[in-house]
Amino acid sequence: MTRLCVVVPVLDDADHLAVLLRLLAAQTRPANQVVVVDNGCSDASARIARTAGAEVVVEPARGIPAAAARGYDAADGDIVVRCDADTRPPADWLERIAAAFDADPRLDALTGPGTFYDLPRRSGRAAAVLYAAGYFLGAGSAIAAVPLWGSNMAFRSRVWERVGPLVARDRQDVHDDLDLSCRLGPDARVRFDARLRVGVAGRMFHSRAAAARRFRLAARTLRLNWTELGPGGRWVARTTKGRKTWRGKRA
Fold this sequence. Notes:
Blueprint: E1 4-10, H1 14-25, E2 33-38, H2 45-51, E3 55-58, H3 64-74, E4 79-82, H4 93-103, E5 109-111, E6 114-116, H5 121-143, E7 153-156, H6 157-163, H7 176-184, E8 190-192, E9 198-200, H8 208-226, H9 231-237, H10 240-243
Parallel strand pairs: 1-2, 1-4, 2-3, 5-8, 6-9
Antiparallel strand pairs: 4-7, 5-7
Helix pairs in contact: 1-2, 7-8
């Protein structure tokens, strides 16, 4: 049976993490491994993870890129599933992910959207639509591919073996999920599943500063990867001829 490993980078998010781990334990198709990456927590996150049966690994270098990469390195499974501590997956989340990869041996990565459970219902729905359109369509156009979303994504371990040395794991000024999406390259088979939906906290909508910071990180991530191959070149590289000319380089 396909082995699933869930990776969760955490920095002082004990309350959210406790809820997530309960939801993971209640999955119709449980994970074979849950890796919680302690990125310098000063709260009870690590203790809560160990009590729930998760494997805790420590990444002293601050930043989600470093923490996520450390978790992927520690993953022992065929499929690496990534979410955040504030992700609220439905009970069949992992079952859907496993079924998608089992049904398509060529599938490299999978991602889906989210709903913001801590925002008012009407504005939360609008925010979810706008965010999904901005990220999956906007970022997707910029990288000529389906971008992965860190709150709800999965990829084969063989993919990480190939691109792990290329990602910008030592930088705090990039979005790790968008950087990974760029590093996958035009040969990757990535699918967006609108039905693979999770709940997430709408933290970026709580203040203008939080939203502005996310946009700045996205811009830096794109600029970093465009120095190697710009959007036009990436679209050309999606053709069979173009794919032969694309080679990833370490950030």
